[in-house]
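quick one
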Amino acid sequence: MRVGKYFLGLAACLYAAAADAERVPMKLWYDEPAKVWMTSALPVGNGGIGAMFFGGVAKERLQFNDKTLWAGSTTRRGAYQNMGDLFFEFDTPETCTNYRRELSLDDAIGRVSYTIDGVDYLREYFASNPDSVIVVRLTTPGHKGKLNFSLRMQDGRQGTTRVDGHTMTIKGTLDLLSYEAQARLQADGGMVETKSDRLEVKGADAVTVVLTGATNFDLASPTYTRGDADEIHRRVSARMDKAARKSYKKLKAVHLADYQPLFARVELDLDAEQPDYTTDVLVREHKDNAYLDMLYFQYGRYLMLGSSRGGQLPSNLQGLWNNVNNPAWECDYHSNINVQMNYWPAEVANLSECYAPFITYVSTEALKDGGSWQQVARKENCRGWAVHTQNNIFGYTDWLINRPANAWYCTHLWQHYAYTLDKEYLRDTAWPVMKVTCQYWFDRLKENTEGRLVAPNEWSPEHGPWEDGVAYAQQLVYALFEETLAAAGVLAVDDAFVSELKEKFSRLDNGLHVGSWGQIKEWTIQEDKQGDHQRHLSHLMALYPCDQISYLKDKRYAEAAKVALDSRGDGATGWSRAWKVACWARLWDGERAYRLLKQAQNITDVTVVSMDDNAGGVYENLFCAHPSFQIDGNFGATAGIAEMMLQNTVKGVHLLPALPSAWDDGRFKGLKAKGGFVFDVAWKDGKMVEGRVHSAAGQECRMYLPDAKLVEVKKSKGGKVAFTQEADGAVVFPTSAGKSYRLRFE
Ligand code: FUC
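structure w/ alpha-L-fucopyranose:
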C-alpha cells in the first residue's frame, strides 16, 4: 500500500489529507511512434473536431475529423468520413534518443519529444473547445533555427489542396454536405516558402500549426444543411483568423482554462502510482496494476469531453475519430445499445454538459414534424416516433426496426433531469418527447390473453424470434411510463394524457418473468436456452441501465437476473463486457465485475470486425476493441467502474456497493448521484472511512449503507448535522443548496 499520500495519520485526517493529495498523473505514454492508426495513434478532440497523432520522428501524420462530415443523405445511409491529414516531413533522420510519446488526460495535451544530435525536439498537440481549433506546436527548447520541415495537407477524398500564403485549404462536396478545412502555419524565426502543394519551413525556432474545419450540416434544418460553400469558407476563415491572432501561449492557456476544471471534477485513486513502464507494457504485462483501472476510467471521461461537447450530434461508434471513408457499421448511430452506452457515464462521471449533443439529437429528430422518425411511426399507424437500428445523421434510419429504442432514448432524457433537477429542461425539452413517445406506445400496445398490455411483434436484439411481449420491449416501455409519470409529478401535469398513462401503466406487463431454470425470461413463447452467450443483454435492461431489478426492490428478480447473466458467460465483444461489469456491480458482486473489467482490458491487435467472444478488449492506445475500434466499450467501462463505486437505489445512495478486494484502499472524488449530489469517499481495507457530499439542490440526502456505519455529519464549516436512521436502513439528513457536508464512517 502506498503510504504518505492520504493514508498517513489518523483516520479523522483522511479527508483533509486527501484534499491536499497530489493527483496521480493520468497519462498514456509510449517509447516509440504509433504504427497503426486504430491501435496506437492517440486522440485529441474538442467535442466536435478531433485528430489522431502518430508521433513519427522523420515523418509525422495528424489525421483529423469533423463529427458532421458524412456522405449519404436522407435516402441513403452513406458513411462517416475521414476529413483529411496533415503530413510533416522533417529533415532529420528517424533515429533519435530519449523518444517519448504521451497523452496527458489531465490537460488534454499530446506530447512527442526526442533528441537528435544534441537537439531536443518537442511537439504539443491539443484541440481547443473555446477556439474550435486543433493546434500543433513544434519547438527545440534551448536551440534556435533547428526546425526544417515541409507540411502538406491532404483531403480525405483525394480532393486538391490549395496553398495560399501560409494557409492550406481543402474543400469539397459530398451527397448533401459541403465542407472545408484550413491549416495555417506560423513560424518564429527562419523562413517559410509557399510551394504549389506544401509549405516549407527552413531554420525556424518554433512553429505553430492551427487546423480547423466545418461542414454545412444542420440537424434542425429540413434539408439538413444551412449555408453554402461560401458561408462555410467565411466561418472557417473567421475561426482561423481569430485563433491565429493569439499566441501559442494564449491558445494553450485558453484551452487549459476550459478543459482542466471539467476533467478535474472527478478523481479515482485506487492506491496505485503512475508506473515507470509504457502504457502498452502496462496493458500487455501488468493488467492487474490498478493504475490501469484508474486510467481506463478517466480515459472514458477524456474521450467524452473529446467527442461530445456542443453541436447537434452525439458521439458515434468511434466517438469522432475515424481515418477511413468506409468505417465498420459506417460509424453510425446504432440504436440497440451503442449510442446509448456512449452516454452511460455522462451524469455519474460528472460530465453533464456532454449529454447535450445526444439530447439535442433525440429531441430535434423526434419532434421534427413529418420527419423520418415520425414517418416510421406513421407507417405503423402510431403517433410519436420510432427508429430502426442503423441511423445516419440525416434522419435516414434502416436495418431492422427497433421500436423500444424510443423508450430507451427517453430514459436518457429523464436521467439528465434526475441528476440535475433542471425543471426548465424537463418541461421544455424532455417532457414533449417523453409524452409523444408514450403516445406511440398507447397506440401500439395490445392486450394479451391475461389482460396485460404487451408490445406486439418485438425482438430481443440481436437474436431469437419476433414475439409479443419480449422482455426487452416490456422493460423499456415500463421504464418510459414510470419515468414519464414521475415527470408529470414534478411538472404538476394532471390532464387526460396523464390519466391515460396511469391507466395503461397499471395494465402494462413489466417484462419480469422467471423462467424454468430460474432466469429472467427473454422471450414469452420461445424457451430461453441455458448457456446462450449472445452478447446483448436485452432482457436485463431492468437490471442495468434501468433499475426495476434490484435486491432492494424484489430479491426474486435480482436472483433471476443473476442466473440469466451468469448463463450469458464472461466472454463477449468489447461493449458487451463493459455492460456485464455494470450488471454485476448492480448485483453487488464486485469480484465478478472486476473479473469482467480485466477481461475487457485484454490486449488485442485485431483491427477487422469480429463477433468472436474472445477477440474483444483494448488496443495499446486503450481504445476499446469490439473489434474493430468501438468507443461504446470505453464509455461503458467508465460507467461500470462508477457503478462499482456508487449506486442510486430506492433507499438512497449506496456507496461502494461492489468494491473488489483488488481495490481495497482508495478514494474517489466528484461522482454524481441523483438529486443534485456529488460524493467524495475514502476507504481503507475495503471499509469506508470518510466522505463528503455536496448538495447542489438542497434535497434531503438519503444514503443506504449496509456495510458502513455513519457516525458523524458535519457542515464544511463547523456544526454537526443530525441524521436519522430509518426503519428501512436508510440514513437521512437535510441539506441546503450549495452546501457541502463531511461524513465520517465506522
Ligand atoms: C450492434 C452490435 C454489434 C456491433 C454493432 C455496431 O449491432 O450487435 O456487436 O456493436 O452494433
